[in-house]
Every structure is written in structure tokens, then in C-alpha cells.
């Protein structure tokens, strides 16, 4: 059984006694910063000149300073800029300004796991990785709950890095839900695998194929949208509550029988072999190199994929239908994604 941590296992005063710089104020950055502040932690935000997130942070009453200044002031530096910019940000702005013995905190292990960042030997290097999007990390905290977190220590220069990691995780609300002890390697490889094979890549492709199959056979796109996309959330909610078993218990016997007969026909053993190949590319660094090389070249491949995804007919149908569902409009307050950010 994995080692788990809860609120009682952590001492909030450890992080309350430090000066924290959160670098980046995006999905995770805003959630960590606001949750830390509301837990009584001294926080400043480091952003580059002309940052579009500056105003958002200042509207919350947070102090925003240039990255170099935030790093100079702090003895805990939290790196929550996008993974692909962290390497340059670290060598150019963070490392030259880092206090001796300052701790580095990551929200994902990518740059450490693939050696894009090589920390100094006097830094504690730790990870507190929420297992959910930043906007949910903030929403759950405000509602008195939390999103589960993974905790890891890559380098324990002070001998007290675990106390700091647990204290930090408690301050962002993660230990209300529970923290699991892991390593940078395990977090990075499983996170990439999960998002590529199941959660994002796998689910998106499954939905698109389902929608295409129905519409190409002449069924109405609106009906196909409900069957292949909208209802997925309702099914997944049941899985979260009680596993696949509860989902099968709740659906009709017809649906459950169809699940057994057709699930393995659609997702056949080749899919598992494909997943193993994806995992291998993650483990040997092939995926990381492809992502970073493309980003360094101005992200031509990434932009082309994004454009193609946005053109899929399911997006047009979905946009029209969601416009008619008032309860979804109420919930959809984080609309930055419309601009593709
Ligand atoms: P975002 O893309 O949301 O981060 C955007 C923020 O980073 C903005 O404030 C942006 O400022 C700033 N930024 C971008 N480029 C630079 C730069 N060159 N210098 C300084 N600041 C910059 O990131 P995420 O929150 O998605 O990811 C942050 C980390 O958290 C990653 O390691 C990721 O893997 C991890 N993570 C993310 C999750 C998520 O929910 N998104 C889930 C779990 C982990 P500007 O206005 O200047 O562009
Ligand atoms: Mg993930
Ligand atoms: Mg991820």
C-alpha cells in the first residue's frame, strides 16, 4: 500500500515560516498562490515583463514582481510556468538569483526527470503535484475540500525537505484529500502515460471516433454528441464514486451486457500493445525530446495539431448545443480556453 499523508501528518507552520515565490500565474500558479495565501503563507508572484496574468494576480491582492526579484526575496521558489519554458527560465532568471539553500518546488516532474533542469546541490528539490486541473485545485480549497496530491523529494539538502513538502501540500489543501508519496520518475512517467493514453489522448480519440461513426452512418450530429461526449461525464462520475462496478450497477442490463460484449471488441488487445509503445517512448525520453524540440522550433507541430483538433465537426455541434444548456453556461466561467490558451 502506498504511503499516504493527511492534514494531521503535516505542520503548517513550516511553510508559514518561509518566503514563497510562485513563478507563473496560470492554471496551477493561481491555485497554489491563492491557496497558500489563504493558509497564511507569505507569497509573492514572479512574472515576466508584459505578462498577461499580472492583472489577474493583482486583482486578487497579490504582489507581482519580476521573476528575478521574486526569486531573490524567497527561500522557497515554486516553478509553475509551462514545462517547456522552465528550463530557460531556470538558467536565465532563477538560478542566478537563487538564495543559498532555497528550496525548489515543482508541480510536475518533467524537467527534473528528463534532466532539463539540474538544480544546485544546496537546494531542496521537491514536488507537490495536484492530480487535477488548477481551477479545480482552487475551487475545492475554497469549498473546504482538496484535490489529491503526489509528493516527492528528489534532493534533500537540508535534511528537512519532507517536512516542507508535507507542509506545502497541506497549505494548498492537498492533504485534506490525501497525499501519496512517490518519486519524480514515477510521477512524471505515470502522469504522461495517463494523460496520453487514457484521460486526454485516449478519451478524445474515442469520443471523436464514436461521433464520426454515428454521423457518417447518417445519424444527427446533435444526438451523436449527447451519446458520445456529453453522457461521458455522467458515466465517469459513477466510476469515481464506486468504480467501474458502480457504473455497471447503475446502467441498464442492456447497457451492461453491451459493455461486456462490445468493449473488448472496440478496445482490443492491440490497444494495450499501443499503450505499451507509448509508455516506452515516455520512459526512454522519446516523447519528451519530441515535445521540447518542437517547442524550441516555435511549436509548428503542436500548433498544427491544435488547429486540426479545433476543426473537428464535433466542436461545432457541441458549441451550438452547449449554448442551449443554461446550467452548463453557469458553470463555464473559465473561458480562457476559447482563445486557445
Ligand atoms: P500555464 O500554461 O497555465 O502557465 C501559464 C503561466 O506561466 C502564466 O502566468 C504565464 O505568464 C507564465 N509564463 C509563461 N511563460 C513564461 C516565461 N517564459 N516566464 C515567466 N512566466 C511565464 O501552466 P500550468 O499551470 O498548466 O502548468 C504549470 C506546471 O504545473 C507544469 O509543470 C505542469 O505540468 C504542472 N501541472 C499542471 C496542471 C494543470 O492543471 N494545468 C496539473 C498538474 C500539474 P504570461 O502571462 O507571461 O504568459
Ligand atoms: Mg496529470
Ligand atoms: Mg500532466
UniProtKB/TrEMBL annotation:
The signal peptide annotation in the UniProt record is: none
Which residues hold Mg(2+) 1? 191, 195
Which is an annotated GO molecular function term of this record?
A: isomerase activity
The protein's matches in InterPro entries, at most eight in alphabetical order, are given as: 6-PGluconate_DH-like_C_sf, KARI, KARI_C, KARI_N, KARI_prok, NAD(P)-bd_dom_sf
Q: What EC class is this?
A: oxidoreductase
Residues the record marks as active site: 108
Q: Does the keyword Magnesium apply?
A: yes
Q: How many cofactor units bind, and how?
A: Binds 2 magnesium ions per subunit.
Q: Which UniProt keywords apply?
A: Amino-acid biosynthesis, Branched-chain amino acid biosynthesis, Isomerase, Magnesium, Metal-binding, NADP, Oxidoreductase
Superkingdom, natural source = Bacteria
Biological process (GO), any one: L-valine biosynthetic process
Entry GO CC: cytosol
Give the KARI C-terminal knotted domain ranges. 183-328
Q: Quick one: which residues bind substrate?
A: 252
Enzyme nomenclature, EC number: 1.1.1.86
Q: Which NCBIfam families match?
A: ilvC (TIGR00465), PRK05479.1 (NF004017), PRK13403.1 (NF009940)
The similarity comment for this entry is: Belongs to the ketol-acid reductoisomerase family.
Q: What does this protein do?
A: Involved in the biosynthesis of branched-chain amino acids (BCAA). Catalyzes an alkyl-migration followed by a ketol-acid reduction of (S)-2-acetolactate (S2AL) to yield (R)-2,3-dihydroxy-isovalerate. In the isomerase reaction, S2AL is rearranged via a Mg-dependent methyl migration to produce 3-hydroxy-3-methyl-2-ketobutyrate (HMKB). In the reductase reaction, this 2-ketoacid undergoes a metal-dependent reduction by NADPH to yield (R)-2,3-dihydroxy-isovalerate.
**This protein is called what?**
Ketol-acid reductoisomerase (NADP(+))
Origin organism is: Flexivirga aerilata
Amino acid at each position: 500500500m502506498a504511503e499516504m499523508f493527511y492534514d494531521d501528518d503535516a505542520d503548517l507552520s513550516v511553510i508559514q515560516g518561509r518566503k514563497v515565490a510562485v513563478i507563473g500565474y496560470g492554471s496551477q500558479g493561481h491555485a497554489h498562490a491563492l491557496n497558500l495565501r489563504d493558509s497564511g503563507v507569505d507569497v509573492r508572484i514572479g512574472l515576466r515583463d508584459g505578462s498577461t496574468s499580472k492583472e489577474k494576480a493583482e486583482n486578487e491582492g497579490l504582489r507581482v514582481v519580476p521573476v528575478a526579484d521574486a526569486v531573490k526575496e524567497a527561500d522557497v521558489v515554486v516553478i509553475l510556468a509551462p514545462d517547456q519554458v522552465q528550463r530557460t527560465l531556470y538558467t536565465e532568471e532563477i538560478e542566478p538569483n537563487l538564495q543559498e539553500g532555497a528550496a525548489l518546488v515543482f508541480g510536475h516532474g518533467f524537467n527534473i526527470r528528463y534532466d532539463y533542469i539540474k538544480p544546485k546541490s544546496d537546494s531542496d528539490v521537491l514536488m507537490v503535484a495536484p492530480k487535477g486541473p488548477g481551477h479545480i485545485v482552487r475551487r475545492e480549497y475554497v469549498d473546504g475540500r482538496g484535490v489529491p496530491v503526489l509528493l516527492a523529494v528528489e534532493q534533500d539538502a537540508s535534511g528537512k525537505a519532507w517536512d516542507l513538502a508535507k507542509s506545502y501540500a497541506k497549505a494548498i489543501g492537498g492533504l485534506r484529500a490525501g497525499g501519496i508519496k512517490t518519486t519524480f520518475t514515477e510521477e512524471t512517467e505515470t502522469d504522461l502515460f495517463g494523460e496520453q493514453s487514457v484521460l486526454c489522448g485516449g478519451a478524445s480519440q474515442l469520443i471523436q471516433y464514436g461521433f464520426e461513426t454515428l454521423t457518417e452512418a447518417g445519424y444527427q450530429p446533435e444526438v451523436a454528441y449527447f451519446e458520445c461526449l456529453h453522457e461521458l461525464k455522467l458515466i465517469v462520475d459513477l466510476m469515481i464514486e464506486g468504480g467501474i462496478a458502480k457504473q455497471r450497477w447503475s446502467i441498464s442490463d442492456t447497457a451492461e451486457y453491451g459493455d461486456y460484449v462490445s468493449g473488448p471488441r472496440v478496445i482490443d488487445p492491440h490497444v494495450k500493445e499501443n499503450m505499451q509503445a507509448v509508455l516506452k517512448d515516455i520512459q526512454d525520453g522519446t516523447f519528451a525530446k519530441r515535445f521540447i524540440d518542437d517547442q524550441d522550433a516555435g511549436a509548428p507541430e503542436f500548433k498544427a495539431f491544435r488547429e486540426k483538433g479545433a476543426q473537428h465537426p464535433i466542436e461545432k455541434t457541441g458549441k451550438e448545443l452547449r449554448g442551449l444548456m443554461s446550467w452548463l453556461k453557469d458553470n463555464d466561467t473559465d473561458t480562457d480556453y476559447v482563445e486557445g490558451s
